[in-house]
Description:
InterPro entries: APLF_PBZ (IPR019406), ATP-dep_DNA_ligase (IPR050191), DNA_ligase_ATP-dep (IPR000977), DNA_ligase_ATP-dep_C (IPR012309), DNA_ligase_ATP-dep_cent (IPR012310), DNA_ligase_ATP-dep_CS (IPR016059), DNA_ligase_ATP-dep_N (IPR012308), DNA_ligase_N_sf (IPR036599)
Radius of gyration: 39 Å
CATH superfamily of the largest domain: DNA ligase/mRNA capping enzyme
Number of domains: 5
Cofactor: Mg(2+)
Mean pLDDT: 76
Subcellular location: Nucleus
Enzyme class: ligase
Number of helices: 29
Largest sheet: 8 strands, mixed
Number of strands: 29
Distance between the termini: 100 Å
Helix content: 25-40%
Oligomer: single chain
Keywords: ATP-binding, Cell cycle, Cell division, DNA damage, DNA recombination, DNA repair, DNA replication, Ligase, Magnesium, Metal-binding, Nucleotide-binding, Nucleus, Zinc, Zinc-finger
Amino acid sequence: MASSTKFSVDYAKRVANCKKCRQQLPKGELRMARMVPNPFTTDSNNPSEMKQYFHAECLFETLTRCRATTKVIESPADIEGWSNVQEEDRSKILDLISNLEKVRAGKGNGTKTPSRPSKKQVESDTYERESSKKKKEDSSKKHLSGGNSEHKEKRKAESTEKKSSKKEGTTTTKEGEESGGNEESAGTSGSSDKAQNKRGEKRKLEVGESCEREKEGKKRKVHVQEEDIKKERRYSKFDSFKLFCKLCEVLASVSKYTDKSTAVNMFVNKDGYDGDMLLLVRMLLPSTDQRVFNLKEKQLIKLFSNIFGWSPEELTDSFNQTGDVSITIRQYFEKSIEDGRKSHLSLQDVDSWLNRLTEYTKEDDQQRHLNYIAKRATPLELQFILRLIKKDLRINAGAKHILDGIKKGAYEAFQNSRDLKSVLEKCRTLGSDTSFLIDSGIALGTPVKPMLAEPCRSVEQAMKTCVNGMFSEIKYDGERLQLHKSGDTFTFFSRSLRPVQEHKVSHLSDVIPQAFPKGGDMILDAEVLLVDTATGKPLPFGTLGVHKKEQFANALVCLFVFDCLLFDGKCLVDRPLKERKKILEENINEVPNRVLLSNYQLIRKNEHDKLKTMIWKAIDEGLEGLVLKDLESVYEPGKRHWLKVKKDYLEEGKMADTADLIVLGAYYGTGCKGGMMSVFLMGVYDETSNVFLTVTKCGNGHDDATLDRINKELQPMMRKIGRDYESVPCWLKCSRSLVPDFVVDDPKKAPVWEITGAEFSRSDNHSARGISIRFPRVTKIRDDKSWSSATNMDELQKMFEVSKQKTDFDRSVEDEIPLFAKNNVNNPFGDSAALDGDIGKLEANKMETTEDNTNHQDDDEKPCLEGGSPKKEETAPKQKEATSGDASEKVTCKYGSKCYRKNPEHLRKYHHSP
């Protein structure tokens, strides 16, 4: 019966791989497709088809090997989309059709494939083999019987020698001792010799087997982890790693997210499915894997080059073209092994192998471990094993699409609980057509996906979003941290839900019980950063590193707490923000410079000016920005329902720092941008030294169409140097770590782009006097500018200095205290009755009036905020009154004159020596 295979032709809309040769089908290149049954719908009531893409030559080569009954392309009428093919490509396909007809015709008229031998032929061959064997045995017997006199004399001499050598208690046969010269004696002696030869061979065999066992024992000692995988296991057929790879291929081949979820659903709901669903989902979501494999692309290329004797340079060039190290290694791997290798790996085998990989950091150990799995994996399996190592299967499917494919509502349940095991167990207990939603309960020790904020472009947007009023909170430029406290056990998770490095949180286990003596079991959402103990000001992002931290002698690691998800064992995520804040205020005992409550103010509805002033003040003080939160909002894990205000967000970037920079070089992209320039090295011209200097690397701002056009325009003016420092031209001053894959031939002909960022920053890597741009993106292609009219080094220096100056908005007396100072927050709740009595009063030191918030530093001390209002001097008498009294009756404050507290009660109790 003829096959119903269909064929089509078009031009590639995105980068894909040929099903036969596995080489890339670049975007815009001619490709042909064959419709085949979808393996995941064959058992359903509505089976569907999927496309397999080929180069035109590869498809026709495949068709030449088809059976005579298989339908092939016989004319353009068999090809869907023929009318859209260009004339040149039509001619090419017609030639391939003609050639296919000739090949298939030759197959039909030529010599046939050798048929199986008949029964008579088999019997005849068997008889001949038996006769030949019998003749050899007869010849051997005749030889042993001593057929001539020379042979008899030789046997006699050998027998005499054996007699003399066995005097020491060795028993010999009577026939051997009395052998004289007749045929019977010689025959008996020959039989004895034959027996001894057999015994000798047996001993040799035993010794050989013993040596082999010893070698195997040594191998087991050296490769214990390999022997574990060899042990016989009984897994479900659905746990086959080959099936997992095929599922990934299907997920990658469909573009709609609903189709991806459907494919997963069909896989896990097949009749008799009894696979390890938890392991399957974990492998489909490798980005959630917290294991560290210590292998990057360059290291993988180096190790596989050593294993198979490949050229590292060729592999690197191929990787630059594909942008995917797994595809590169697979292509070379297919050429290095014999066809027909079968798969025997299971999901459990691969997971166990990955576990052991985390233990190896030495190159030799990693190479041996990779070699082990390469000997057992098929090319397709090796490709996906490498993608698991890189934690990117390239299937364009996230947790939502995978989990909703398992069961409708599973993703929402996972977002709330972050307990994948319990979610999947619940999925198994429900019927296949039943959806579910788990309650929002959270569990200690299981990280909760943090609630996030979306950019806020204006004050008006904030007022429209937060209709119930808002808390305006400092956006600390530190690292997000989630603290889980269960009894005396503390666990810290980062924003990515991974464990936090020990040196960043080593002190918190000691101070958290002091800060929350009544907390019990709790989960806190916070920010950890360095704080200058002299001023109380938070230090910039990145200072928490081990080496950076050593540069700040007067700084301490401080935890700023801004939300509470669970307190004293009670889940709070469903309670409004104002209640969660109240619980924090009532239960925290701040530990100076160690554990503090984040600073925030209440912004009521329509208080536009108050919010605008706070925004400008935050920018003026060098803070990252503000976070705005609706008073009635609940905590929604993973949702972006807060607002963040930063300098570069306001008024669509009008406040942001921008510069017109020159394109000096480019880097290969990865993934779907592999093989093309997608990240660019931007810089300025320095008239003093007559060289071009680097400012930043920028890979954001261009859409796909623009990036394609830019690549075509830049290709003729770029020269490939492959990140070789020795090949950097003399006109470019560039650090080793920033050497690009390409440099422009003539920087004076290079394009100019407008680059916008969050702010100008300092960077030791860049040569433009250490000036760089944080979070850069291309906002405009300046075709109207050339290298001479672009921003030069002196202009960039002035822009940097201006960006660090303070704004000139009018400050009132109330604004003299910095936002980061712990005493600057007047009662953010105001009159409790105004909020329906839901929130009580804050701590006493946060209910002070503006008069209580005056600075109590001596006149000769440097004020906290430069450029303060002249009214500051008028507050000095009040400060002296507050501090008057017998100093000997007071306890000396450990912070001395640098104490940040202005609370009158504190001033009366403590003496602040200069």
